[in-house]
């Protein structure tokens, strides 16, 4: 089963959101971050490899800027 995860840049960071820093993510998720930013329309993360689960506790990911984690 695939879950579509997208990362969208945000301008404001709410004080009550959970921020995950790129260097704290699991290796599978780290590999996906640049792909999700550069080609969001074509990117899907397969739950079987654990990548989608790695974003589960995050509202935002701090990479080169802050990105909202959205799951469909």
TrEMBL record:
Every DUF7979 domain range: 4-69
Superkingdom of origin: Archaea
Pfam families assigned to the protein according to its UniProt record, in alphabetical order: DUF7979
Protein name, as recorded: DUF7979 domain-containing protein
Record organism: Haloterrigena salifodinae
Taxonomy of the source species: Archaea, Methanobacteriati, Methanobacteriota, Stenosarchaea group, Halobacteria
